[in-house]
Amino acid sequence: MLTRDRDLLKRRGVTHGCYVRALRSELQLREVFDRLDLARSARPFTRCLCCNMPLRAIDKAQVAARLPPRVREHHARFTVCDGCGRIFWEGMHWQRMRRLIDSLGAAPQVPRSV
């Protein structure tokens, strides 16, 4: 559990937790990333944002009918979640997240979401 509430961390049901000192979200992310040494183990873009199931690469032809027209025109690489069926591609959100993750020192990985 990550929290800024010290009393919450003292509850009996909490077995693993970290108190986050920073107030701003960007600094909180850096703090947690550094404290938990996530640069070595981070595997961004490998799990579904909706259900956390692993993503797998899929051929564009297999998902083309389900893509918005502009995505179909401008993107070639896709992943899919076998759990909930969401399709991911390297759109603007993916690019912003990629820059953020790179700034934290994490190794690059795979595509972005619907």
Core attributes:
single chain; 114 residues; alpha+beta; 2 domains; 3-stranded antiparallel β-sheet; two-stranded parallel ribbon; 5 helices; 5 strands; 13% strand; elongated; disordered C terminus
Helix tally equals 5
Oligomer: single chain
What is the overall shape? elongated
The overall average pLDDT, rounded, is: 90
Adjacency order of strands in the biggest sheet: 3-4-5
> Helicity range of the residues?
25-40%
Q: Low-confidence parts, pLDDT < 50 over ≥5 residues?
A: 107-112
Radius of gyration: 17 Å
* Class computed from helices, strands and strand pairing: alpha+beta
> Main sheet?
3 strands, antiparallel
Q: Work out the strand percent.
A: 5-15%
Count of beta strands: 5
Distance between the termini: 27 Å
Characterization of this structure:
The protein is of the alpha+beta class and 114 residues long. It folds into two domains: 1-36, no CATH class; 42-114, no CATH class. It has helices spanning 6-9, 25-35, 60-63, 69-74, 92-104, and strands at residues 2-3, 18-19, 55-58, 78-81, 87-89. The strands form two sheets. Strands 3-4-5 form a three-stranded antiparallel sheet. Strands 1-2 form a two-stranded parallel ribbon. Helix 1 links the parallel strand 1 and strand 2 (18-19).
